[in-house]
Amino acid sequence: MSGDKKFLISDASALRLMRPEDHAFVVNSWLKSHKECNFRKANGKDFFACHAPVVRKLIAESTIKLVACDPEDIDLIQSWIVADVRGDNIPVVHYLYTKDIYRHLGIATALFKSATSGSQRVACTHLGHAYDDVKHKFQDVVEIFYDPHSIITREK
User: Fold this and answer.
1) Distance between CA 152 and CA 41 in Å, rounded?
2) pTM (2 d.p.)
3) Hey, what domains does the chain have and what are their CATH numbers?
4) What is the spatial distance between Cα 107 and Cα 127, in angstroms, rounded to a whole number?
5) Which residues contact 21 (CB under 8 A, 6 or more apart)?
6) Residues 6+ positions from 103 with CB-CB distance below 8 Å
7) Mean pLDDT for the stretch of residues 128-134
């Protein structure tokens, strides 16, 4: 699927691959919405300055990068997910983000399902708003667990 090819997930939302021109928005929304960003200083360093290189590396190296967008305007991002697969074949969701106005419409659920392919166990490396929502929604079907060490997803 090319970055411009889209698949409808509802009348108001479509799924497509993340494109390089999406990366600035993804990095910005990831860092600003991350629960730990409340701790602006980590070891005397600014959280954003410390974590931005980690986020950029995960975006560059992850194999699953999907965006939910307006079907009529693929540049209008509603939600996105960056994920990968660990060496033991467990999907790893690095981050899942949805703009406030698009929350509780099933968009994050569609992204999560697409990225994890119905796996029974899913690791998450970052805690965000969507983590708690998705974990609660899938609690009877999927074991979703926080594992920041899964940032290293496969041997290089």
Assistant:
1) 24
2) 0.87
3) 7-151 (3.40.630.30)
4) 18
5) none
6) 129, 133
7) 77
